[in-house]
From TrEMBL:
Biological classification of the source: Eukaryota, Viridiplantae, Streptophyta, Embryophyta, Tracheophyta
InterPro entries (UniProt xref): Nucleotide-bd_a/b_plait_sf, RBD_domain_sf, RRM_dom
Coiled coil: 31-65
Full protein name: RRM domain-containing protein
PROSITE patterns assigned to the protein according to its UniProt record, in alphabetical order: RRM
PANTHER family (UniProt xref): EUKARYOTIC TRANSLATION INITIATION FACTOR 4B/4H, OS02G0757900 PROTEIN
Signal peptide: none
């Protein structure tokens, strides 16, 4: 009996070592993809942590500013320091528009050491015609008041002690009585003879009755 020959398609059968190598290559590709995905997740987590840290820093800064604004002790200390600075300052009015801070400082140099000269300006940068002079010594204020009605740039200036503005307090100036105008006339209130069921100032609207016409 003759033996039957079996044909093998697809070439030679690979060895087990080659098959294991192919499996290892596939696994290495999957591991590389997983490592890359893990690195991306770590990067995103790091960015989120940085954003959270920045938000916490901003929140702490805002809370610190709000606490400083709401702190009565801090506000009292600030008000006290402002009053102390105002006590060493004078108000100078009728200042020439072309006058510079250096010229104002030279004018008050004989009174004491000038710490700061402030010439107020409007929103367009033009001087308003008055200034504030701050001294280092408290006694210099009395000497500066002696320069009231002195000439600076050919103009007679006004020197007075600087007043401290209290925050939240506004001076009330009531209207003065004008004898030529008198008091405005106010019409007296006249109560109605009967109470209206519709409310004050409301008048009911009535529709005019129509004429009965049976043939129309």
């Amino acid at each position: 009996m003759e033996e039957e020959e079996h044909e093998v398609y697809g070439g030679e059968i690979p060895d087990e070592a080659d098959m294991d190598a192919d499996v290892d290559i596939g696994r290495s590709d999957e591991d590389a993809a997983k490592l890359q995905e893990l690195d991306e997740m770590k990067k995103r987590l790091k960015e989120m942590e940085e954003e959270a840290a920045a938000l916490r820093e901003i929140q702490a800064k805002v809370e610190k500013e709000m606490g400083a604004a709401q702190d009565p002790a801090g506000s009292a200390a600030t008000q006290a320091s402002k009053e102390e600075v105002d006590a060493r300052s004078v108000f100078v009015g009728n200042v020439d528009y072309a006058c510079t801070p250096e010229e104002v400082q030279q004018h008050f140099q004989s009174c004491g050491t000038v710490n700061r000269v402030t010439i107020l300006t409007d929103k367009f940068g033009q001087p308003k015609g008055f200034a504030y002079v701050e001294f280092l010594e408290l006694e210099a204020v009395q000497d500066a008041l002696q320069l009231n009605e002195s000439e600076l740039h050919g103009r007679q200036i006004k020197v007075a002690a600087k007043r401290t503005n209290v925050p939240g307090m506004k001076q009330f100036h009531p209207r003065r009585f004008n004898p030529y105008m008198g008091y405005p006339y106010r019409r007296p209130y006249m109560p109605p003879y009967f109470a209206s069921p519709y409310g004050f100032g409301k008048v009911p609207r009535f529709r005019r009755p129509m004429r009965f016409r049976p043939y129309y």
